[in-house]
């Protein structure tokens, strides 16, 4: 069974950062990471992965065009079974409130605490098994 995590961020270096942080997990085949550089691309990918085991979506909030907050209710309606963690450089109370009100499971601030993210992924993997 292939288990996927979808990372949505318009910054080109994010994919390299995530692949580096999770290189052992990826090499061991614990999960696969998909990357989308925009909210529309993420929505398209989410629909395409309808039959795949998608265990987590990690999305930046501030992106050109459609923001992560605008994408959130759409992706939650398409895949209500998949938790979404929003990522932002601005962890203020209002941003947190909006993210959670729109269906986010959690909000992480940049720089990302990869140890905490790894724990979240491990929890999702256990639930998917």
From TrEMBL:
Sorted UniProt keywords: Phosphoprotein
Keyword Phosphoprotein recorded: yes
Gene3D superfamilies the record matches: 3.40.50.2300
Domain Response regulatory: 4-125
Pfam families, sorted: Response_reg (PF00072)
PTM sites of type 4-aspartylphosphate: 60
Alphabetical GO biological process terms: phosphorelay signal transduction system
Protein name listed in UniProt: Fis family transcriptional regulator
Organism, scientific name: Bradyrhizobium nanningense
